[in-house]
Amino acid sequence: MTEPTRDRTGDEPIPEATVARLPVYLRGLLELADAGVETVSSVGLAELAGVNAANVRKDLSYLHAHGTRGVGYEVGHLVSEISLVLGGGRPSPVVIVGVGNLGRALSRYDGFVAGGFPIAGLVDADPAVVGRKVAGTVVRPVDELASLVAETGATVGIVATPAAAAQEAVGHLVAAGIRSILNFAPSVVAVPAHVDVRQVDLATELQILGYHQHRRTTGDTSRAAG
Amino acid sequence: MTEPTRDRTGDEPIPEATVARLPVYLRGLLELADAGVETVSSVGLAELAGVNAANVRKDLSYLHAHGTRGVGYEVGHLVSEISLVLGGGRPSPVVIVGVGNLGRALSRYDGFVAGGFPIAGLVDADPAVVGRKVAGTVVRPVDELASLVAETGATVGIVATPAAAAQEAVGHLVAAGIRSILNFAPSVVAVPAHVDVRQVDLATELQILGYHQHRRTTGDTSRAAG
DNA sequence: GGTGTCATGTGAACGCGCGCACAAGCGCGT
DNA sequence: ACGCGCTTGTGCGCGCGTTCACATGACACC
Fold it and tell me: Per-domain residue ranges for chain A?
């Protein structure tokens, strides 16, 4: 086992692939909790999350969520443990930059609030949009971004601008003190080292699907089935 | 898992990681083409895409897009080559299931059409939504999904329903002959082996960001060594 | 026409992540 | 009390992906 420098309680570096699966586990666990289930095995959780059971066990071993041999894991304990690791235990208000079609949809998306990410405010560069009320929140101008972040304690920024404005939007967010950014604009943005950006590109996802489909139809050797 | 037995011209299996980068390259190349640039080096393209230059070269080596030593790659050639690999050369109409906030935003998203994915139609299970016109298209009931796919030749399905309805929506799409699905619902869905599903979960992305932020603030290594 | 400069293309090594398979351990029934 | 069955926890091997480093080769300039 490659043991990193330290093994302190609470801040071992969890592998990125594991972190990406934790939210999926959490969703399944919350469903189980709603259904009144109190314990779950790695196999059960694996099916719920669509991954391998050994993978689940290894993932959970990175947390302090030990299970009971012969029984399984306690659902409630796992929920609180994963929630703690992912969110630090408290909600992270989100600022959305760019109130176009996508920005409006995101501001109304229930999953954010449910997942501990309430909408702290909306910002747009277009004067025609500023001042309008969207999803119960008044859209504010870009130059109020810093004060908005300060007031609400927002820690996450969502960029939902056109591609051409994405880099500028990110710049504003960074200047306002935001260090976690979710970028929906189809544009590679540059950020300082201490800022974390995740890219969500809808068209890219479709193009990846397109590759596989194109591959299945043209390079299809299963045509004559052998 | 497809059989990597064959190595014919035109359908070598391109590594998944490479496929995921090709759309990013394509975006950068289109910008260059717009700017009138005719050739680009692997270093230039790497900066544009935010990846390593050697990675770019290896990625492009999987395509039939050979460059010229000492000069670089021809932008136009790369564009057509990547487009061909990703889309098969022709547009793939998209059917959107679920016309809630997200579905409406997606139906109006310009990037889809620009990327070769025109909206073929909208479908919803809610009778109150069916018949309404969204983004210039009339929402149709779920039971017309199969005929809609047949009429429009749609090849891709987007699921933008609540989580509880996602599995059913996927079932309808599969039954209608769709083999490429982009699922925005926060739910793991089961599909037959010949169907390809990509998951885009907004809340999950935020939670991953939350982990890193939580880690930076609590397990701050800049504190004291040892 | 020769030479220098530059960029491609690729061989090899490193690291990460995944999955198998097994040992360790807990609980329950007898 | 004891053994049996179930499940966790993990060591190990394999494959993918990334990156460095270098040889190959084309173009431009003189």
Answer: 16-86, 94-205
Instruction: From B25, B29, B18, B50, select the one nearest A211 (Cα to Cα).
Output: B18
Q: Give Cα separations from B155 to A211, B108, B158, B161 (angstroms).
A: 12, 19, 10, 19
**CB atoms inside a 10 Å sphere around CB B212:** 16
Task: Give me the pLDDT at residue B226, please.
Answer: 25
pLDDT value at residue B4: 38
More confident of the two residues A73 and B222: A73
Same fold, A16-86 and A94-205: no
| Angstrom distance (rounded) from CA B21 to CA B11 | 18
pLDDT on residue B8: 39
| Kind plus residue range of the DSSP H or E element containing B138 | strand B137-141
A40-71 burial, b at 16+ Cβ within 10 Å, e below that, comes to: bbbebbbebbebeeeebbebbeebebebeeee
> Are the Cβ atoms of B194 and A187 closer than 8 angstroms?
no
Asked if residue B122 lies in contact with residue B139, where contact means CB atoms within 8 angstroms, the answer is: yes
B21, B204, B216, B220: which to substitute to probe chain A, counting the most A Cβ within 10 Å?
B204
What's the confidence (pLDDT) of residue A220? 54
Tell the CATH topology of B94-205. Answer: Rossmann fold (3.40.50)
Residue A212 near residue B88, CB atoms below 8 Å:
no
Q: Return d(Cα A168, Cα B29) in angstroms, integer.
A: 21
Residue A197 β-bridge partners: A181
Q: Which CATH number fits domain B16-86: 1.20.120.140, 3.20.20.70, 3.30.420.310, 1.10.10.10?
A: 1.10.10.10
A213 pLDDT above the threshold of 80: yes
Chain A residues 64-123 with CB within 8 Å of chain B: 85-88, 92, 94, 101-102, 104-106, 108-109, 111-112, 114-117
Q: Which two tokens stand for residue A116?
A: 């501990």
Which residues contact residue A66 at a Cβ distance below 8 angstroms, ignoring those fewer than 6 apart?
none
